[in-house]
Amino acid sequence: MRRGKKKLRVGIIGVGGISKVHLEGYAKLPDLVEVVAFCDIIPERAKTGAEKYGAPGAKVFTDYRDLLAMKDLDAVDICTPNKLHAPMTIDALKSGKHVFCEKPMAITSEEADAMVKTAKETGLKLSVGYQSRYSDDAQLLKRMVSEGELGKIYYAEALALRRRGVPTWGVFLSKEMQGGGPLIDIGTHSLDLTLWLMGDYSKPVTVLGSSYKELAPLGGYNAWGPWDPKSYEVEDSAFGFVKLESGATVLVKASWALNIEKDEHGSVLCGTKGGARFVNSVLTINKEGNNRLWDITPVPTRSSDSLYDREIAYWVDCLINNKEPLVKAEEAAQVTRILEMIYKSSETNKAVETSKKR
After folding, report:
1. Where are the domains positioned within the chain?
2. Is residue 5 very low, low, confident or very high in pLDDT (cuts 50, 70, 90)?
3. Most CB atoms closer than 10 Å: which of 147, 165, 210, 271?
4. Model pLDDT for residues 197-239, shown as the tens digit of each residue
5. Average pLDDT, stretch 141-151?
6. CATH class (in words) of the domain with range 8-131+308-326
7. CB distance 152 to 257 below 8 Å
8. Which CATH number fits domain 133-303+336-353: 3.10.450.50, 3.90.190.10, 3.30.360.10, 3.100.10.10?
9. What is the pLDDT of residues 300-342, one digit of tens each?
10. Three-state SS string across the chain, please?
């Protein structure tokens, strides 16, 4: 990727809210990377982004295809609404650019599979923004599971529950642009973290799901201000029971609005030698030994860098040194597939099943 001391040249598509944490990450690597192109359908946003984070002479576009036409661009970072992830990623890969795409990878499994296929055909790198994997405790728990300290993981929970945390800006409440509500928005993070920690990407053979829109029409208190019930097109909570081909079971819970005591975000793992609860950034290992039950909480590490900074730094390192991304496209596609099956089960009021193992 690098020739001598040439910096990695990146373009960003979608200069809205989430793009800021990506751009901050690139800005902290001035010797390795420069953001040379900004694209947004709102010209002022692209211009402001270029002025604050752009390299000298950074270009501004309103059509992403004009950005992709740049010959001296190494990679693009896609921070647009969910509906646009797949077509923009595929176009970018075909134009010869590596792609970092915000979560979720896509709205449908068909789109996600097409993205994986294009990355393989072009030989370019594709990764997805699941920053939860980069925390010290997530990395520690991953090592413990990989080394067999918890035994065989056969049950897990993916938790992404907000009591009242409905995002009222942008297009979050649009079914067309986002594909869904909390399940595809924040549930995708916890499901990715859980499957990665388990190391289990076997096929989902049976999925039973339910989604609800019970509190959305009622309005009421919300941490980010009131929402308009008339424009609230997606679910306010969703739940899934997932049986994997390995035999393991994963319970998925996601909400923006739910009458619970407190928010919960993270993963619960249950294995034959022990278990773990990694929720709200607190890790506890549960074990049995010496005729006692043990709950062990590691002393937290101290770090000033954000998970987004780590995510971007890892991605840049992958491109410069030709390493494999931490978040593989095939893994992100599996997350999309399971979310799609939960939604389908809820819509049909039936369990969704795939073909049995041959």
Report:
1. 8-131+308-326, 133-303+336-353
2. low
3. 271
4. 999 999 999 999 999 999 999 999 999 999 999 999 999 999 9
5. 98
6. alpha beta
7. no
8. 3.30.360.10
9. 888 878 999 999 999 999 999 999 999 999 999 999 999 999 9
10. CCCCCCCEEEEEECCCCCHHHHHHHHHCCCCCEEEEEEECCCHHHHHHHHHHHCCCCCEEECCHHHHHCCCCCCEEEECCCHHHHHHHHHHHHHCCCEEEEECCCCCCHHHHHHHHHHHHHHCCCEEEECHHHHCHHHHHHHHHHHCCCCCCEEEEEEEEECCECCCCCCCCCCHHHHCCCHHHHHHHHHHHHHHHHHCCCCCEEEEEEEEECCCHHHCCCCCCCCCCHHHCCCCCEEEEEEEECCCCEEEEEEECECCCCCCEEEEEEEECCCEEEEECCEEEEEEEECCEEEEECCCCCCCCCCHHHHHHHHHHHHHHHCCCCCCCHHHHHHHHHHHHHHHHHHHHCCCEECCCCC
d(CA 114, CA 120): 10
Q: pLDDT tens digits, residue range 15-51?
A: 999 999 999 999 999 999 999 999 999 999 999 999 9
